[in-house]
Design brief:
The chain has 376 residues and is of the alpha/beta class. Helices cover 28% and strands 28% of the residues. The protein is built from eleven helices and 19 strands. Strands 5, 6, 13, 14, 15, 16, 17 and 19 form an eight-stranded mixed sheet that branches. A five-stranded parallel sheet has the order 8-2-1-12-18. A three-stranded antiparallel sheet has the order 3-7-4. The longest helix has 24 residues.
Length: 376
């Protein structure tokens, strides 16, 4: 699209998470007028740490925000997979993207703060809970719970796994339960029993359980994540310390001791859900990005990275295509094959013997479609 056309675009982004904030940054750099509408009254990212891959960091460099991310993260050289008793299975360097060779380990809260911190003041509007979206062809209209309406040339649905935009226009299928729970905490390095000696991610697997240790040494902390098989699909299940200790029974004693020392009041406990691939991500004036388009299981560590890549690819497509409609088609053609494959691999069955082929996935036999999107 011509520069003059891009500067005349009115873009409304629904959701101020990773995908929404990144899309807002990338699209605003095109010269478009961008507003972000977030249902929460304040933005608070809970959970644990994530790894930002080299390709993602290259996007940040392109957008001029690399330093803002780098100063609240630690560069990591490789990830390692080990048995329950800490015997090495494999060690692999992170995929390289150009000159960028490191994955940056970052706390989710620091990440969203950094992304939102590089957006112009007044761009993000809190307390806007989306009720419906109407596609009018050459524009779209958002209606919020308080009755307010907003019309835009392009609506970007970045409203997560329970996306209203997706449900209204693209798919009424609810999230799918994986048959797993994730128990996440951020602990002091001093409480990690010597298991965070460097800046590299380690995963311990066995007995239907995966334990992720992701150092956040720039914060003096470690992200500790237990992912375990469980048939309870309650969105936010009730779990006791005894339940956790039973889950990690037989693991390296240091991991057991970390678990024993966890403060249950500070833990993020969730059943693990994803969505089935969505056939179409866009109409003439509405497009999905991030989890709204392709929420995936967390075993690949690619959820946030995929959202950032979506934002970059959408901006690229708008710059390259001759019209908005062509740009949205180009965006989907570029990104959907990639995320379809990531969703598939995340669900694929695997064992220790298969790790060289699949890092790591999930057994389809445990998939159970939810009768309705679970409530938090």
């Amino acid at each position: 699209m011509q520069l003059s056309e891009l500067k005349n675009l009115r873009i409304a982004v629904v959701g101020a998470g990773y995908g929404g904030a990144a899309a807002a940054k990338a699209l605003s750099l095109l010269g478009a007028t961008v507003d972000v509408y977030e249902q929460a009254n304040r933005i608070r990212e809970v959970g644990a740490g994530i790894g930002l891959r080299p390709a993602t960091m290259n996007r940040f460099r392109e957008w001029g925000i690399f330093d803002a991310i780098a100063k609240v993260s630690s560069p990591s050289e490789y990830f390692e997979i080990l048995t329950t008793t800490a015997e090495p299975i494999m060690q692999e360097a992170w995929p390289v993207a150009g000159d960028q060779t490191h994955t940056h380990l970052i706390h989710r809260g620091d990440f969203i703060d950094a992304l939102l911190g590089v957006l112009p003041e007044g761009m993000v509007h809190l307390g806007h809970k989306l009720e419906s979206v109407q596609d009018k062809g050459d524009s779209a209209v958002l209606t919020f719970a308080d009755g307010k309406t907003v019309e835009a040339d392009l609506v970007v649905g970045a409203d997560g796994i329970k996306s209203v935009v997706r449900r209204e226009l693209f798919s009424d299928k609810g999230p799918v339960f994986s048959g797993e729970h994730a128990y996440r905490a951020v602990i002091s390095v001093d409480d990690a029993h010597g298991m965070a000696a460097d800046d590299n991610l380690r995963m311990y697997i066995g007995k239907g359980t995966k334990i992720y240790l992701l150092p956040l040494r720039h914060r003096g902390q470690v992200s500790f994540d237990i992912t375990a098989l469980c048939p309870d699909g309650t969105w936010a299940p009730q779990v006791t310390k005894e339940d956790l200790l039973a889950t990690v029974d037989g693991f390296d004693e240091r991991l057991v001791n970390i678990t024993r020392g966890l403060d249950m009041d500070t833990m993020n406990i969730r059943a693990v859900y994803d969505i089935d691939p969505v056939d179409t991500w866009h109409s003439d004036s509405v497009v999905l990005v991030g989890d709204a388009a392709h929420s995936m299981l967390h075993h690949q560590g690619q959820g946030a990275n995929s959202a950032i890549e979506d934002a970059g690819a959408l901006a690229d497509a708008l710059r390259q295509a001759g019209s908005l409609k062509e740009a949205l088609a180009l965006f989907q053609a570029t990104r959907k094959p990639v995320t379809d494959e990531l969703q598939r691999i995340s669900r694929q069955g695997w064992s220790e013997d298969e790790i060289d082929d699949v890092f790591p996935g999930q057994k389809p036999a445990t998939q159970q479609p939810a009768t309705a999107a679970p409530k938090e």
